Amino acid sequence: MFVNTRLLPTLESLQESTYYPYTISDHRPFFEREGPQLNLLQQISYSSDEDLFHHLRSLWLVKLACARNVETYIGKFENHIEPIVDLFHSSLRILILESDSKDKTLEKLYKWSRVQVYKHSYIVRSITRRSQHISYCRNKLLNKARELTFDYIFAVDFDVFTNNIFDFVSNFRYNTDGWSVMIASANYGYYDVWA
Fold this sequence. Notes:
This protein has helices at 11-16, 30-33, 49-57, 74-85, 105-111, 123-126, 130-145, 165-170; strands at residues 61-67, 93-98, 115-119, 152-155.
């Protein structure tokens, strides 16, 4: 590594400097120190969970997922995602784009009756960077979704799904008119950098 020593402070200049300790004058938590945040989403008060679930059943959802070598995750993913998608209108679509798998991913996906599978081969030959590969596949799925009627698009990963149904439903306890997108949480240090 190259370091320009002319830009570094000399020992003499550091010794001549005066330093003042930083003191915190207010020890209250930040949410007490700051004023009310009026730009946060407003929670909707449903009289009961049944009212909320009734509302969800009126919403049209399209679920998207990219798949590559996810054979070992499909069963667990299906068991995890089915209760969530069952909350929405029965016209729900699950769109999955499979690309370049070397295992039995495609075979298992074709056995899942609720899934509409798209296959795109040889992407890795022309798009070698993982981020570009994922971006290409998600954009293909988004274009397919735009051909459908929907209220929400739900994009998830096969190998990272930690939310339970109650965490997911909690998103709809807020007025969603004010937001365009909600991204993945940061469970286990992961966040969706590819979104």
